[in-house]
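Model it.
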Amino acid sequence: MKKMISMFIPFALAVTLVFPALATTTYAAEYTELDMYFPIDIEEHWAYDELDNFVNADLLKGYKDFEGTVTVKPDQSITRAEFVALLVRALALKSEETGKTFTDVSKDKWYYEPIQIASSLGVVNGVSESKFDPNKRINRGDIATMVVRAFEKSVSFEQELGELYFNDVPDYYAMESIAKAFEAGIVNGVTEDEYRPFANAKRAEAVVMLQRALDLQRGNLPTDAELFERIIKSDTESTEAINQNKLDQLDAIYKSHFTGYSLAISNDYGNELIELASQDYSLTIQKVSDEHLTVLDKTDRFAIIESTQGSYTLTAKQNGNTSTKTVSSDGLYLLKKMDDNSWKIYMHYLNEEQQQ
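Modeled.
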């Protein structure tokens, strides 16, 4: 699906329909924060859905080269430090404990805090009593072990463990975790008979395993009401600010309700509206019909809400020219639980017909 936010795509459509010349005018830098949500190396990847979701939710960080090209390198091996950071970020793990002390993990390193958190919670251990080996490539067996430890309080691993289906997994410390993760549907084999526990795990494999585990969390679900409230408030407050020409309030409104990709693109369109307002452009939004919200899925940390039946009339004016268009707001909202336990929108997919 295309990355769009239905609240702001109509604004862009109104600008294009009324003032074509303005639609091509840009004041933004050639490469902006928004570019980070469009890595070029995942479009045809087998793990596209999981990778794209993690990128949109600010869980997976991409790389930008000197030309501004963004990649996430899905088939690159992932290190122990990188996986621990990804795991801590995905679960928003916290700890007041000091954690274990590793001689090769100093406080000035970017991975110090996530390793400290994960080790204090018993999610990870070192390769020895004194070393963590943060830059060592992590293998598939170790990832399964860390995932089971991290999710054991929020995911049921109570399935009866029969014979391990993989003939290449020896009787060693990760065997039980591999079996539990497999039974829960978190990991698969590389082939029907082989798990390849000692093979280096790739970034895409790590993301997919974490996404599957996150999808199983059902221990602390949000209420439908708090999810709906976030969507309704984001709509109401941003619409009022635009209709009252209080565009300087948009930044605070966006930060209150959006995160990830939604925050980036909302800021992009908000800045465009501010720029156009200096050129005698104005936009008003009138709700025609209320949207009907339905929870399609929710877990402890993520939710998918379907929006139907909603529509708006948009009126754009500039230099005596006026254009009016009625648009639908139907689509899917994706929400994420934040570190402070609030819920924010990180993605909004339009229905297919609205993306044409």
